[in-house]
Amino acid sequence: IADDATDKSDTGEEIPLQWETVQALLDRYSVRDAAGRYRLLTSRFLPGRPVGGWSYRGTRDDDPNDTIPHQDRRSLRALRVFGAWLNHVDLKVDNSLDLYTEENGRRFLRHYLVDFDGCLGGYKAARHEPRIGFAYDVDLKEVVTGLPTFGLLVRPYEDLPRGKSPLVGQFGSQAYDPAKWKANYLNDILFACRPADAYWAGRQMTRLGPEHVRAAVTAARYGDPAADAILAQVLVDRWEKTVDWALRQVTPAQSLERITPRAGGFRIEATDALVDAHRPSDLEYRVEIRGADGRSVVASSSTAPGDPAFDVPASATDGRDYLVVRWIAETGDGRALPPTDAHYLRAADGWKLVGILRDGE
């Protein structure tokens, strides 16, 4: 203990920090491994001068680079999906930070998210509340639905099994449903997550795989191979559930820029995002072709199940320089997902994709 380290007495007075105080905190809050070591968390200081947190709405008046209202940033609205996967229930303004930074002679604000110690079940371990991730701190729906049942209603988190490792605790995947996940707080940005935002987040998550998850868990140095295996499997299981849900929020047709000329028209070598992510897909696709005025130019047709590749006929391109190809996926139970519209422009060297709009954007 440093000579100048201090503690606060019950009356708020600064007093020298004693080893007995440290030992009492370790005994109360920490878990020791087989070698008798305590597992602790430290936070590295970020480079730059702190200038406070950032809001999930609006822009900073003192930052000329901050021109897009934060509620309009897909990367922020999609935090709901990443938060669900990792059970990051502590998403709030207090856990954001702006730092005035200098790099290569340039000075600017850099925006951060901070304080992730509540993820991966950390908040559950601190508060010993199984409802973490399933209900808000103040959840009127929980109160209203619980009162008339006189305790007979069994909620998804009430019968969860005990954790298989004290290092992992009750962070699990058994009752996890990304569609129903809740943070601790009623954060506007999480409610603002639109279907297309969730799809975008799912696409980002497909860049990861089980091997990346296991490598991250290994880097955490849990010191217990059994705990490593348990946590990695939980994260992989939650990843699969989250990706399956996110990629089904809109019609998951992608690779829409892959075009080849064909018989006066062109072929779009579209793929199914679920199939590309090595996930099972029961989707069947219906395709509609519209002109620049939004009117249908040819009758709609269906593609092979799981394969949305489509031939735009010459009758659709004749006399037109702009087309909208709309994909609508239907699930096995007949439910239609929000459409994906691909916009194409005839250029000097052929048709080109100029934009994609999803779920009616």
What does this structure look like?
- The protein has 361 residues and is of the alpha+beta class.
- It has 11 helices and 15 strands.
- The protein has helices at 19-29, 74-77, 79-86, 122-127, 140-146, 188-191, 195-205, 210-219, 225-246, 273-276, 314-317, and strands spanning 6-8, 14-16, 49-50, 96-103, 106-113, 253-254, 259-262, 265-268, 271-272, 284-291, 296-302, 310-312, 322-330, 340-347, 350-358.
- β14 and β15 (350-358) form a beta hairpin.
- α3 crosses α7 (195-205) and α8 (210-219) packs antiparallel against α9.
Quick take:
The protein is of the alpha+beta class.
List the helices and strands and how they pair.
Blueprint: E1 6-8, E2 14-16, H1 19-29, E3 49-50, H2 74-77, H3 79-86, E4 96-103, E5 106-113, H4 122-127, H5 140-146, H6 188-191, H7 195-205, H8 210-219, H9 225-246, E6 253-254, E7 259-262, E8 265-268, E9 271-272, H10 273-276, E10 284-291, E11 296-302, E12 310-312, H11 314-317, E13 322-330, E14 340-347, E15 350-358
Antiparallel strand pairs: 1-2, 3-4, 4-5, 6-9, 7-8, 8-12, 10-11, 10-13, 13-14, 14-15
Helix pairs in contact: 3-7, 3-9, 7-9, 8-9
Work out the radius of gyration: 26 Å
Low-pLDDT sequence parts: none
Oligomeric state of shown chains:
single chain
Total strand count, please? 15
Helical fraction equals: 25-40%
The average pLDDT value, as a whole number, equals 89
Shape field: elongated
Secondary-structure element order, N to C = EEHEHHEEHHHHHHEEEEHEEEHEEE
Strand order of the largest sheet: 11-10-13-14-15
Number of helices: 11
Fraction of residues in β-strands: 15-25%
